[in-house]
Design a protein that fits this description.
The protein is α/β, with parallel strands linked by helices. 45% of the residues lie in helices and 13% in strands. It has a seven-stranded parallel beta sheet, with helices on both faces. Helix 1 packs across helix 8, helix 3 packs parallel to helix 4 and helix 4 packs parallel to helix 5.
């Protein structure tokens, strides 16, 4: 049996993983053998996700964390190590978008909060796990970006800027950490049916237009994104770094 996708013995931390894409990724990593920390800001959702995945026979630990607060992120890393001794895989999925509409209306506070949560926290997380990965000469860091980071938008512009910054963060970290056999990559989803993107896909006209120009003729589901995360975290992706993997049903290549 192939062991390319076997994550047995590995410990993964997945932020923003109590629902949607993050939860689908956490489940898939655990199904492939990893011990997985699920996390979000909401303690109730963390407890519920931990129960649900544990009831499926998966090795899961729930740890609440607001990634925009560095002390909480430090505690997340420390408690993971205390429980399981190490961190081999990080999937940074947590993100926010408190502003929809024109840049003319966005407050300084909202813009700063988007950049801090969606970009700064991802750098913090890499800094917190890099030393032990260097020591072992092995590790995988995955950032969940968005196809919004590759195009302009009049609706979610600040969010798109933050996701573009994540793509550059991936490239820089891949160059710096690659000599230590630490792989850094991004997943770049299209429009997926999650609570986070509800304002976009619940608009029937907008959703219909998106589906019409998507070659696979449907929006994404959270599970559609999980497979590439397993690839990037496992030996299957051991010679892959600094890349962004678009998972969007073909939307970005259609006219």
């Amino acid at each position: 049996m192939s062991t390319l996708f076997d994550l047995t013995g590995k410990t993964a931390v997945v932020t923003g993983s109590t629902k949607g894409i993050g939860k689908a990724i956490a489940r898939a990593l655990a199904q492939h053998g990893a011990r997985v920390v699920v996390s979000s800001r909401d303690e109730g959702r963390v407890a519920a996700a931990e129960r649900e995945l544990s009831d499926e026979g998966l090795a899961v630990l729930g740890l609440p964390c607001n990634v925009g607060r560095k002390p909480e992120l430090e505690r997340l890393v420390d408690e993971t190590r205390r429980a399981w001794g190490r961190i081999d895989i990080v999937v940074a999925n947590a993100a926010i978008n408190p502003h929809y509409g024109s840049f003319a209306d966005i407050s300084d506070e909202a813009f700063a909060k988007i950049m801090a949560t969606n970009v700064q926290s991802n750098l913090w997380l890499a800094q917190l796990v890099a030393d032990e990965m260097r020591e072992r000469k092995d590790g995988a860091i995955v950032y969940v970006s968005s196809i919004g980071g590759t195009i302009g938008s009049a609706i979610i512009g600040a969010y798109c800027i933050s996701k573009a910054a994540d793509l550059q963060l991936v490239r820089n970290l891949a160059v710096e950490l690659g000599p230590h056999n630490i792989r850094v990559n991004a997943i770049t989803p299209g429009l997926v049916r999650t609570d986070f993107a509800r304002a976009l896909w619940e608009d029937e006209a907008r959703a219909a237009e998106r589906i019409a120009r998507t070659p696979l003729r449907r929006l994404g589901e959270p599970e559609d994104v999980a497979g590439i995360a397993v690839y990037l975290a496992s030996d299957a992706g051991r010679w892959t770094t600094g890349q962004s993997f678009v998972v969007d049903g073909g939307t970005s290549i259609s006219g």
